[in-house]
Structure prediction request, 151 residues.
Amino acid sequence: MTYKYSGDDELEVSTNKWMLAGTILMVLMILVFPLYRSVEPSNRDDARATQLASLTEEGDRIFDQNCSSCHGVAAEGGSAPALNAKQFLQAANDEQIALLISVGVPGTPMDAWSQDFGGSLTSEQVRSVVTYLRSLEEAGIDNPNWRFGKS
Prediction:
C-alpha cells in the first residue's frame, strides 16, 4: 500500500482534518439524539395503535367466519358462552383467552382452533381474535350468566 504523504506534516494535517470531521459528526449526533428521543415514543404509540386496529379488524373477520355461529354475531352468546360479557372479559387475561381458543375446552363442543392442536388458525390469527374480544370489553354487557349463552 502506497501512502501519498511525503512527510509527517502532511500526515498530521490529514489526520487532524479527519479528527475534526469525526468530532463534528459526533457533536451532531449528540445534538440530534435528544430530538429523536422526543419524537420516537409518539411514533411507537402510533405504530402500536395501528397494529392494534389491524389486529382487531382481522380478529373481527376471523370471529365472524369461525366463531359467530356458536358465540353469536357480536359475541353475545348463542349455543356457546357470551364472550362480550364484562364478567368473562374481566376474569380472563389475554393468555387464558388465547389458550381457550387454541386448545379448546374438553368435554364441550369448543374444539381446538390452533394449528398447533389440529385447528385451522395460526398463532397470529388466534392473537387477532383475542385482540378483537378484548376490544369488546369497554362496551361489554353485564351478563352474570355468560357461561350459558344468550342472556
Notes: The domain at 8-148 is CATH 1.10.760.10 (Cytochrome Bc1 Complex; Chain D, domain 2). Helices lie at 8-66, 68-71, 86-91, 94-103, 123-135. The chain has one domain: 8-148.
